[in-house]
Design brief:
Radius of gyration: 23 Å
CATH architecture of the largest domain: Orthogonal Bundle
Order of helices and strands: HEHHHHEHHHEHHEHHHHEEE
Strand content: 5-15%
Shape: globular
Number of helices: 14
Distance between the termini: 26 Å
Bound molecules: protoporphyrin IX containing FE
CATH class of the largest domain: Mainly Alpha
Number of strands: 7
Strand order of the largest sheet: 6-5-7
Number of domains: 3
């Protein structure tokens, strides 16, 4: 009996894992026009808000595009980057996510969509549509966004730390990071082109200007003239000033990123690293100085769709949140009652127990979705605290 329970427990943990690994970037169930019947105006509503927002704040296009990438690379494209944690333990609390912006626009879109068709459009899909619309608004390519993603219920700071790629990454790490998500070397070089819009804080590349190997030196792979220009914007130790990643056209989605890389003016080590692999280098060089004539737009459309498939939850997996920062169904809710000496209840506290691992052993029946609250007894924690 105990063995059977253990086996069940093991299977419950293993099957979803195998599912994610097996499916990688080829999530089933996503399709163009997923909301055609259930919320026909979904994309129109997003577009209205995006046009209105970017008209007054075009500098939000970069951040709004980046949110989808940061969502997809941690647990897949399932909206986990949007979840809040009362204890500061969510993905958005991780250092690599500290520069993320635009959450309030996602909330605004979600509120509008909840009015239009309550409980239908997932936050993960909103991120994917917003990412496309932010590129279009900056004169970039349009692509049909596959939808039908559902929202996850877990967001974990450690996973963000482990899964987001550092701007210090070399080409081997970048290729491995993309391959792990079912993305190709071509996807890597094409999606890096997303850096044609937006800005970066000095903290992401300051080491290249002042202390590259710990000896007060500069990065020899970065154009020395460019280093001098960058130093004017990022003084020693400045972490927070913003620099345009594609100077002069950071509000225009164009192919200029590759021209910069070819001139050794890629801002991050991860940008410069694209010259260190035969395939990525060939792509960079063949797109440098091509202006409107390159295949970059066509490639970007394809690679964004590829990225949008990573670990997507579909069908009955996950949920559709009502508010993007909050889980709708709490996975495991644990109740703790504090009694006085005479046995009367002083206080009840509710804890979320992500994955049900803190207060219980793995019990599959408690993992069923679609129930708002599940209660599980747990051990007495202190002198006058009793289990329920
Ligand atoms: C290949 C690995 C990548 C690395 C290491 C990387 C790293 C970074 C870093 C360090 C920043 C500046 C962040 C800050 O100042 O807080 C940034 C900004 C940005 N990234 Fe990436 N990135 C990568 C891939 C991508 C991809 C695939 C996309 C989208 C398709 C993307 C879109 C952007 C955008 C739009 C910004 C500007 C954000 C803003 O204006 O606030 N990046 N990236």
């Amino acid at each position: 009996m105990a063995f059977a329970k253990l086996l069940l427990c093991f299977l419950f943990k293993l099957v979803p894992l195998l599912f994610v690994l097996h499916h990688g970037a080829s999530a089933h169930g996503l399709k163009v026009g997923f909301y055609a019947k259930t919320c026909p105006r979904a994309e129109a509503v997003v577009k209205e808000i995006m046009v209105e927002t970017l008209k007054v704040a075009p500098s939000l296009a970069g951040p709004l595009n980046r949110l989808h990438f940061h969502d997809c690379f941690v647990r897949g494209c399932e909206g986990s980057v949007l979840l809040n944690s009362p204890t500061g333990q969510a993905e958005k609390n991780a250092a690599p996510n500290s520069g993320l912006r635009g959450f309030q626009i996602i909330d605004k879109v979600k509120t509008a969509l909840e009015k239009e068709c309550p409980g239908v459009v997932s936050c993960a899909d909103i991120l994917a549509i917003v990412a496309r619309d932010s590129v279009v608004a900056m004169s970039g390519p349009y692509w049909e966004v596959e939808t039908g993603r559902r929202d996850g219920r877990v967001s974990n700071i450690t996973e963000a730390l482990q899964n987001l790629l550092s701007p210090l990454s070399n080409i081997t790490v970048l290729k491995a990071g993309f391959a792990r998500r079912g993305l190709s070397v071509k996807d890597l070089v094409v999606l890096s082109g997303g850096h044609t819009i937006g800005t970066s804080r000095c903290s992401a590349f300051g080491n290249r200007l002042y202390n590259f190997t710990g000896k007060g030196d500069t990065d020899p792979t970065l154009d020395p003239e460019y280093i001098e220009q960058l130093k004017l914007k990022c003084k020693t130790g400045d972490q927070n000033s913003h620099v345009e990643m594609d100077p002069g056209s950071f509000k225009i989605f164009d192919v200029n990123y590759y021209t910069l890389i070819s001139k050794r003016r890629g801002l991050f080590q991860s940008d410069a690293a694209l010259l260190d692999d035969a395939e990525t280098r060939a792509y960079v060089l063949s797109h440098a100085n091509t202006y409107g004539t390159s295949s970059f737009f066509k490639d970007f459309r394809v690679s964004m769709v590829n990225m949008g498939k990573i670990g997507a939850l579909t069908g009955t997996e996950g949920e559709v949140r009502k508010v993007c920062t909050k889980k709708f169904v709490v996975d495991h809710l644990v109740r703790q009652i504090r009694y006085s000496e005479d046995g009367t209840v002083i206080k009840q506290k509710y804890f979320e127990d992500p994955g049900g691992t803190t207060f219980q052993s793995c019990e599959p029946h408690l993992r069923e979705p679609n129930s708002i609250a599940r209660y599980k007894p747990f051990e007495v924690l202190g002198s006058n605290v009793k289990s329920v």
